[in-house]
Amino acid sequence: MAVVMMFVIAIPYLLNRSLVGAAPVRAGQVVTLGTFRYRPAPDWQIDRGASQRDLVSVLVKGATTYRLTPLGRQSSAVGAFKAAARRYEATGRGRIGGDPASVSTARGLTGLVAPISGNTVAGTLTVLVAGGQGLGISLTARHTAPLTAEIADDVVTMLDSVEVVDS
User: What is the pLDDT of residues 91-112, one digit of tens each?
Assistant: First the structure.
């Protein structure tokens, strides 16, 4: 009977553990999201429970979350930013504050960035638009564990790695 109980408890636990949780980023790993791709920084973890192939990529490092979501067809950075801001605010995790500022990456992509504020988190919402497609990127950290210089450098590196997939 004890063996049966062990299997009844252990099998669901092991299945659940294999499907959710975080997995280390592999060296040189590339993640593709629709028409965009990027390289996660080393020492980050891919949140397998929140990430969905081609729909959303979620990375975590400590109390920091980096989420990339394709926004589909977008005719402008302003329209893409409004769409991403509505999506983010609908989650109830925080609000977008202030007017967005222009941003550009090392690979020549352009977009907008604005701060995120909430009861438990702070961060930024960035939107990039290329080839009529938009990509929303939210970066949040819990107030109890604010962003470090190392994490900020990782985020710049990941943002600069975003490129458009050749069609």
Answer: 888 899 889 999 999 999 999 9
Q: Are 143 and 110 in contact (CB under 8 A)?
A: no
| Sign of the torsion formed by the C-alpha atoms of 112, 115, 116 and 122 | positive
Q: Write a three-state SS string for 39-51.
A: CCCCCCEEECCCC
- What is the DSSP code (8-state) at residue 131? T
pTM listed for this prediction? 0.83
Bin 76: left if φ > 0, else alpha if -120 < ψ < 50, else beta.
Answer: beta
Looking at this protein, which amino acid is placed at residue 12? Answer: P
Q: Please give the structure tokens belonging to residue 15.
A: 């299945």
Closest CA to 101 of 117, 84, 81: 81
